[in-house]
Design goal:
The complex is a heterodimer. Chain A is an alpha/beta fold. Helix content of chain A is 18%, strand content 29%. In chain A, the strands form eight sheets. A seven-stranded mixed sheet of chain A has the order 5-4-1-8-13-10-14. Chain A has a six-stranded parallel sheet with strand order 16-19-22-25-28-31, with no helix packed on it. The longest helix of chain A is centred in the middle third of the chain and has 13 residues. Chain B is an alpha/beta fold. Helix content of chain B is 21%, strand content 27%. Chain B is built from nine helices and 28 strands. In chain B, helix 2 links the parallel strand 4 and strand 5. The chains are: A alpha/beta, B alpha/beta. Chains A and B meet through strand 16, strand 17 and strand 18 of A and helix 9, strand 14, strand 15 and strand 16 of B.
């Protein structure tokens, strides 16, 4: 097989438990985002737009939705003769086999996959971030610095720095210290979980890490500190632009809202950096005579007769007349009945909101006490759930 | 899988559609916000289970080839069979310019002979509908007909738009007893949908025989003349049929999609219509941007007002602009505070700030591809 300069390994095994029932039957990277996309479309499109044509997708949690979504990789132009997209679940070899026990372990278990391409560099990505990034620029930086590893970092507000893995660097961007969630952060350069490694250097570290029973087999916790201790050349690559970890319901909701407005925080309408996705073969959307849709994203296959304000409608959503949707995201194929009210909510794929139902209403004493630890003030209706006619669902409740 | 292959003739003389076909064949004319007419024929065939399709190209077929590529969007990128584009070529017995449909079909006899299926579905390219042919093929086989013609009942046929208008008269058993081509006073409301099912060997024989007798048009020279010799039968299609036989007809059929019943009929979820994927972002409504009673495709940015219109992919309506009763094709740019009423804007038209352009319901005005106003 011809040698590759750089291949990507995309960590898509996360369960995404903080997304609650949304990830009950699909891995986090398969969660719908931005009207017609799924989260994984962003790193995959970034790869293709950065001329990376070989991507291994490491899955282990509820892989079905992700597997069938990726298929041959054709929507991302990743159906290649030499390379392309590969779904890599854990497997049994001989009498041994185990689940991926950490990010580094997942890559370690796929050494033979990487070796067959004999790459100079390996790019490690995670499948739950929304951003547009040219990895080719990062690679140029990596080569210029003659680095052993380069870590993409984002400048975060100093008072939030203690929530991230923080890179302390010298004036040449060389990393001198790595601190995971430091109480007293010395810098505000947060790791984005995006790494370029020289494969020749990373490979033995993965092999040694696997032998270490006390290791948690994680890039951030183990491999990076090991490399630093050994005095390797680690550099921080400053990323400027929008980047969001959509690991919680709140951040998923926010990231969707960031697409709206005159000057959106994150611009999908970018002809120079297209985001590719699988197309559902649906006609353009239709807005009825009485429809009132403002400041929103509406996808193909939608039919809208009601009111929609500051919301994101995914493919094939039906909104009946008199319905009112505000500050919400409505996932593919959901149906919103007549006069239903949806307020600051996430409506799951194929959910049915019957006529007159109110999602996100003010709580009353009879609602009692319910758990909002995951949802906060966002109301969530799980995939394919039917909310009965006239039913009130109070703010922050999760309907499953 | 049906034991049939499809043969689509895209060389229809297309002056009726005026500037729409200035740079493309009827088969490549944009329709319904994101489609081309050929998408309907190809999707109908694929949804039927027919995966061997020949497309006879004649004039202006660049745009068509660009749209079709390898056929993968219709699942026709196959090792066995698949999509075959059959452009004209010059050989010792072929001039490259067809004298008519018979001549065109004869020029791709090689493809027809190589096709392993027993039956052929022969079709034109300016009639749009969404169906599958399974039942029609079944009825063709059971009835023992030589040829079965798909037709529909037309009530308000506008004679001023008449084009390739083949009328059928049937006896009580469904056999065709008379065919009339472009009759000035039609004696029947049953109008051919430009779809003909027959055995491949029947097509081969009819085409060679007609050519030998210097007859070049398949409908008027072959079908109309042989009503008595051949067992021709009709098969009724009851759904919506859009005949793109004039510019006003084109306008009306696009606008008909704003009717829920029509759009349901043409875009059933059971039989999806496939088209070339453009990877556009979903449409965004920004600021004062609004649309009512309209079809809006992906990639549109709506900052102005849109009413009773069909917007194709990637249209930008600037703040203060008003678009009414219009068809706006791909990547048009409508400037600030401009006003459009009863207009058809072909691909890539740009309308400057403050322009005021109006046609009329009886005569929508078309702006040719790439026009700058």
């Amino acid at each position: 097989m011809p040698k590759k300069k750089m291949i990507a390994m995309l960590l898509a095994g996360g369960q995404g438990s903080r997304l609650g029932v949304l990830t009950k039957s699909m891995a986090k990277p398969a969660v719908p985002f931005g009207g017609k996309y799924r989260i994984i479309d962003f790193p995959l499109s970034n790869c293709v737009n950065s001329d990376i044509d070989t991507v291994g997708v490491l899955t282990q949690y509820e892989p079905l939705a992700l597997n069938s979504y990726l298929g041959s990789g054709q929507p991302w132009d990743l159906d290649r003769m030499n390379g392309g997209v590969f779904v890599l679940p854990p497997y049994v070899s001989g009498s041994e086999g185990q689940w991926y026990s950490g990010t580094a372990n997942a890559v370690y278990q796929n050494l033979p996959f990487i070796d067959q391409f004999d790459p100079e560099y390996v790019l490690i990505l995670s499948g739950d971030h929304i951003y547009k990034m040219d990895y080719a620029k990062m690679l140029r930086f990596h080569e210029e610095k003659n680095a052993d590893a380069t870590i993409a970092v984002l400048t975060v507000p100093m008072d939030e720095a203690s929530r991230f893995g923080i890179m302390n660097t010298d004036e040449y961007a060389r990393i001198t210290e790595f601190e995971e969630k430091p109480k007293q952060p010395k810098s505000n350069k947060a790791s984005m979980g995006i790494y370029i490694f020289n494969w020749r250097i990373l490979r033995p570290y993965l092999v040694n890490d696997d032998k270490d029973g006390s290791s948690s087999h994680d890039f951030g916790k183990n491999i990076i500190p090991d490399l630093l201790r050994a005095g390797a050349n680690l550099y921080a690559y400053d990323f400027k632009g929008y980047w969001k970890d959509v690991g919680t319901l709140k951040s998923l909701w926010e990231a969707n809202m960031d697409l709206l407005g005159q000057r959106p925080e994150f611009r999908l309408a970018d002809k120079d950096w297209r985001i590719y996705s699988k197309s559902p073969a649906m006609p353009p959307h239709y807005l009825g005579e009485l429809a009132d849709v403002t400041d929103s994203i509406v996808s193909e296959g939608c039919v809208v007769y009601g009111n929609v304000k500051h919301s994101v409608l995914f493919t094939g959503v039906h909104v009946a007349k008199g319905a009112y949707i505000r500050d919400s995201i409505v996932m593919p194929g959901a149906e919103i009945g007549e006069n239903a009210i949806i307020n600051k909510a996430i409506i799951g794929e194929g959910a049915v909101i019957s006529p007159g139902a109110v999602i996100g209403s003010d709580p009353t004493p009879e609602d009692g006490v319910y758990d909002t630890s995951l949802s906060g003030d966002i109301t969530l209706v799980a995939n394919t759930v039917t909310v009965p006619e006239g039913k009130r669902v109070p703010v922050g409740m999760i309907v499953k | 899988m049906e034991n049939a292959f499809g043969l689509i003739y895209t060389g229809d003389a297309s002056m009726q559609l005026r500037d729409l076909t200035f740079s493309r064949s009827v088969a490549a004319v944009p329709f319904g916000g994101r489609y081309r007419t050929i998408d309907f024929m190809l999707s109908d065939l694929v949804n039927t289970g027919i995966y061997n399709v020949g497309i006879i190209a004649q004039r202006n077929y660049h745009s068509l080839m660009d749209h079709l590529e390898s056929g993968k969007e219709w699942d026709l990128h196959r090792k066995r069979d698949g999509l075959f584009i059959l452009p004209p070529f010059v050989t010792h017995d072929n001039t490259g310019v067809y004298k008519g449909t018979v001549d065109a079909i004869r020029s791709c006899m090689g493809y027809i002979r190589r096709s392993s299926q027993k039956y052929v579905v022969l079709m034109g390219s300016h009639t749009i509908y969404n169906t599958t042919y399974n039942e029609m093929i079944r009825s063709h086989i059971e009835s023992g007909a030589d040829i079965t013609i798909m037709y529909n009942n037309v009530e308000n046929y506008d004679m001023s738009e008449q084009f390739d208008d083949l009328r059928l008269k049937l006896d009580s058993n469904g056999r065709v007893i008379d065919l009339a081509m472009n009759p000035a006073q039609p004696e029947s409301n049953l109008c051919s949908c430009d779809v003909f099912v027959m055995e491949k060997s029947t097509l081969e024989y009819l085409v060679e025989d007609a050519f030998a007798h210097a007859r070049y048009d398949f409908m008027s020279d072959v079908l109309v003349r042989s009503v008595n010799e051949l067992n021709i039968r009709g098969w009724e299609y009851k759904g919506y049929v859009a005949r793109l036989n004039s510019l006003i007809g084109y306008y009306r059929h696009n606008m008909a999609l704003l009717d829920k019943a029509v759009s349901k009929d043409l875009f059933s979820s059971e039989h999806p219509i496939y088209t070339k994927i453009k990877d556009e972002f979903p449409a965004v409504y920004v600021g004062e941007g609004k649309a009512i009673n309209s079809i809006v495709a992906d990639g549109c940015v709506i900052e102005g007002r849109v009413e009773n219109s069909v917007l194709f992919r990637g249209v930008h309506v600037s703040p203060g602009a008003i678009v009414k009763n219009s068809i706006v094709m791909q990547a048009a740019d409508i400037g600030e505070d401009s006003y459009l009423d009863y207009m058809i804007l072909d691909k890539g038209v740009s309308v400057g700030r403050g322009r005021n352009l109006s046609g009329h319901g009886s005569y929508p005005v078309i702006l040719r591809k790439g026009t700058k106003v």
